[in-house]
Amino acid sequence: MTDETAAAGAAYPGTRDPREMPTSFGFRTVREGEKQGLVNDVFHKVATRYDIMNDLMSGGMHRLWKDAMVSVLAPPRQPGRGWRVLDVAGGTGDIATRIVERSDRQVEAVVLDINGSMLAVGQDRADKAGLAGSITFTQGNAEVLPFPDRTFDAYTIAFGIRNVPDIPKALREAHRVLRRGGRFLCLEFSEVEMPVLDKVYDAFSFHAIPAIGKAVTGDGDPYKYLVESIRKFPNQDRFAEMIREAGFEKVTFRNYTGGIAALHSGWKL
Ligand SMILES: C[S@@+](CC[C@H](N)C(=O)[O-])C[C@H]1O[C@@H](n2cnc3c(N)ncnc32)[C@H](O)[C@@H]1O
Q1: Which class for 179: exposed (0-12), middle (13-18), buried (19 or more C-beta within 10 A)?
Q2: pTM of the model
Q3: Which residues does the annotation place in the binding site for S-adenosyl-L-methionine?
Q4: Distance, CA 92 to ligand 1 centroid (Å)?
Q5: Would you say the CB of residue 122 lies under 6 angstroms from ligand 1?
Q6: Which member of 6, 27, 103, 184 lies 3.0 to 4.6 Å from 228 by CB, making a disulfide possible if both were Cys?
Q7: Distance from the CA of 13 to the center of ligand 1, in angstroms?
Q8: Element containing residue 208 per DSSP (H, E)
Q9: What are the chain's domains?
């Protein structure tokens, strides 16, 4: 159960069906079963402008954080290793592309995302970059991964987990599909831990981002959700605990840009 559902549990007394449990959709409380549809609407709306909006919203910082994540992963460059990574909520394939290129095209990446519009943009990008032989795009849900146990050497998820209605379930699935010795890496917006920066970041997030979204895409609401969902996500320590609860060991995290983003790491041992 997420922090939000636990905290809000009293709102629907006596309910047992997890899909009826309250959860957050940005600052709104919705039923867990409703959240995925609302999230999917957001990403259908932003898919074709997703990459440019990422640059505008983060001032290009998301590229540095993603590069740093791939450096930590250090995908092998030796040929013939058969090393496979699953990038969940992989959207337009940003992380998978970086991983495959960093390995000199020696690793195989599977991008899984629930949203066909995001995957279509990703597939198109991979085709144009000549990476279609190294990256496979699969539609599916992080909570119910369509892969057998112990299939992958690494599981990555960037700016995706906070959108998933049942985060503990997605973390248990991550653990299930990893081989022994496999690595879990999650990049996500987190809690800013620097005075002053937190105020500047708040002002930029709540005012500028929805306004930029409206100017670029004609609709600021999806960006309001994206900002609010960041504030509802558990902080670094709490999320590390959730990763441990899913069975991962040697769980650590590092902050990027004062905690605007954080990279969590865990191992299946
Ligand atoms: C902010 S985007 C991140 C995309 C990409 N990882 C990146 O860093 O650029 C979040 C993605 O999570 C996906 N998503 C949301 N809920 C999901 C779920 N339950 N299972 C799989 N993907 C999901 C959305 O469709 C969207 O593509």
Answers
A1: middle
A2: 0.91
A3: 92, 113, 141-142
A4: 9
A5: no
A6: 27
A7: 31
A8: none
A9: 3-268 (3.40.50.150)
